[in-house]
Specification:
alpha+beta
């Protein structure tokens, strides 16, 4: 199994039970370690993606990351970067990365032409990254080095309509409003201050 960048013994057990090892091997031929021009175009046009992480004990977590199209950038042949914006302060995903660098990213288009792209790799989190100074609204930068990049069948993606970007998504020349939850009685006495960020 050392020759597979995608499959381990658990995957293979189920593939063999369902006689899907041959198609799995064929699909693995489309996996890659470097981004194609189409990958870059899709990633850099995405207004959101999903980020899977796990803590040091392997307990998983999945989060939604959103921003204006272009908030995720392909920064090298096998590297992408995205900002961390002001949030609820729990740092579930980024805290996991500090103790377990393995991540999975799912880019998905549920509007227009359905499309999915998965990026699995290792991540770092930085407060000194050079991108920080030129990324509007960023308080940290996450860089991901891809171990494997592969498209995914979009057949179960619902046909949805993309309306407007979130009013909270950082953009040049615009101070996003504070979310309402920060003023709720349950939270307002313990809300952390918004970190100074690049305004653009």
């Amino acid at each position: 199994m050392a020759d597979s960048i995608m499959f381990h013994e658990g995957n293979r057990r189920l593939q063999d039970q369902f006689d899907s090892r041959r198609i799995s091997d064929r699909l693995e031929q489309f996996a890659r370690k470097e981004f194609t021009p189409d990958d870059r175009a899709f990633i850099e046009s995405a207004p959101y993606f999903f980020l899977a992480t796990a803590d040091a004990g392997g307990r998983p977590d999945c989060s939604f990351k959103g921003g204006m199209p272009g908030f995720v950038a392909v920064t090298g042949p096998s590297e992408l970067a995205f900002p961390d914006y002001d949030g609820n302060g729990m740092f579930k995903s980024l805290g996991n990365i500090l103790v377990n660098a393995g991540v999975g990213l799912l880019f998905i288009a549920m509007h227009g032409k359905p499309q999915r792209l998965r990026v699995n790799g290792t991540a770092t989190v930085s407060r000194q990254d050079p991108l920080l100074a030129r990324t509007v609204g960023a308080q940290l930068i996450v860089r991901v080095t891809a171990r494997v990049i592969f498209p995914n069948c979009p057949r179960y993606i619902p046909d949805m309509q993309l309306m407007d970007p979130s009013i909270y998504a950082p953009r040049p020349g615009c101070d996003p409003p504070e979310p309402a939850w920060k003023g709720f009685d349950s939270f307002k006495d313990c809300v952390h201050p918004r970190q100074p960020t690049f305004k653009g």
